[in-house]
Amino acid sequence: MMNLEPKNESSNRVIISILGKDQIGIIAWMTGRLAEKSINVLDLSQTIIQGFFTMIMIVDVSQATVSLANLTEQLQREGAERGLKVNVQHEDIFEFMHRI
Amino acid sequence: MKMHLAPHEIFQTIVMVENEHLDIRTITMGISLLDCVGDNVATVEQKIYDKITQKAENLVKVGEELSARYGIPIVNKRVSVTPIALLGANFSPEEIVRLAKALDRAANNIGIDFLGGFSALVHKGCMKGDEALLEAIPQALSETELVCSSVNIGSTKSGINMDAVAKMGEAILECAKRTADRDGIAAAKLVVFCNAPEDNPFMAGAFHGVGEPEVVINVGVSGPGVVASAVKKNPQANFDELANLIKRTAFKITRMGELVGREASKALNAPFGIVDISLAPTPAIGDSVAEILENMGLERCGAHGTTAALALLNDAVKKGGAMASSHVGGLSGAFIPVSEDAGMIRAVEEGALSLEKLEAMTCVCSVGLDMIAIPGDIAPETISGIIADEAAIGMINKKTTAVRVIPAIGKQVGERVEFGGLLGGAPVIKVSPFSSKEFIQRGGRIPAPITSLSN
Description:
Chain A has helices at 26-36, 68-81, 92-98; strands at 2-4, 13-21, 40-49, 52-60, 84-90. By secondary structure, chain A is of the alpha+beta class. In chain A, strands 3-4-2-5 form a four-stranded antiparallel beta sheet, with helices on both faces. Chain A is globular, with a radius of gyration of 13 Å. Chain A starts with a strand and ends with a helix. Chain B has a domain at 220-442: Anaerobic Ribonucleotide-triphosphate Reductase Large Chain, CATH 3.20.70. Helix content of chain B is 43%, strand content 17%. Chain B has 15 helices and 15 strands. In chain B, strands 2, 3, 4, 5, 6, 7, 8, 9, 10, 11, 12 and 15 form a twelve-stranded mixed beta sheet that branches. Chain B has a two-stranded antiparallel ribbon with strand order 13-14. In chain B, helix 2 (41-55) packs parallel to helix 4 (93-110). The longest helix of chain B has 30 residues, at 239-268. Chain B starts with a strand and ends in a 9-residue tail after the last strand. The chains are: A alpha+beta, B alpha/beta. Strand 1 (2-4) of chain A pairs antiparallel with strand 1 of chain B.
């Protein structure tokens, strides 16, 4: 389970999910990009099932130096070069869908 | 309180969007144009253009921002306006066409996909503006691009205005003839209603009713693919379990609409109206209502049992959706448009699905005979007969029904029409060869049913 503390009115938490073939340096690449943009990693869950890499990160974008749309575009483009499928979504979508 | 999200829940949402075509079909901003009324057409044109482009200036931008924020496609951004007939009392049909063109310019300017509300409510009779608008429809729809039109010709409370039904048969045929070179696209932008809802975000039937606020945000969700996939994964489920499964899925789909609606309402500074919990298919493979019915165990949509399957689906979607949203409205049910649903198209092409079966299906689901191509040599009275039948179903059963048929000029049963995009394409379907002419020519009004006396 990913733990999310109670959130304030306007949450800045975003969930980044990464899916694809396991390879060296996925986390280094991702955390490097996030650090460049002043995005803080709050939680991270990673598993490898039969060589298939899945990772979910919860990040705080309150200090981010890029817009969410630009961040998504860059991560998806660079992810695709590595054969990884990257999604960047505000946490509300998951909370709304799965919790009342 | 701590919130917990399991990774499988996160991935379930992602799979719904990536593989199962879950999307927000539309954010529709309703705008009242009642303050644009006047007796000089140039002034009214300017007023409606200005009001729409001001109120909906940021609609597309906000839609794109929300789409990026939540990682979910928001396919259409639309505007619905006060039925234009209410502004038309002082104008000739030619002047009403000018208003349609002003609407089209405004829609193009703000970059939306469609604008609805070139409409008239004539279920009991026509006012001056209604008469002019009805006459203006074929020219208006064939000379504009984004304007959609709807006419309400009946209601449970007032009966069916058969004079208007007769006129609409002619109007639909004329729309198709004027755009014969584009497979009759003007007729695809025209829908004839019984019991039209005032807050529907879907096209072509969206308009901003007079009971609505100055501006409002309505949201339409989609998601037949998600339901189809859930049904497919459970081939052994009995009907009790199936209904529960669909309810749970519909709940999740609707929550997405609720979230986007609330956020859009905040960003656009307009009150949030409703979520329309319709299952709206697209021509994409895997985004089909017919596929849901087939996954329930029918060899093809249209096989005996289809109406029962659709009834279960429609009811379960409503139960799940109603729980998920603070305000549900609009059409809210499963749509069965033929040209926009790959499974429906296949069923028609293989002879599994007929117009008569589609009519039966409309008794238990949302809307009615939708996006159906009919032979181009059809008599206008036959189209009116189709409208009258569908309206009768709506009137008696206290539900919305509608007809959106496209006469395929120069084409016969089995040939295809193509509209492209979300409107798709469809095979021409067989209609009854027997005439309805003398019936339609009687004119007058079919009285409201006894069930209308509910006070």
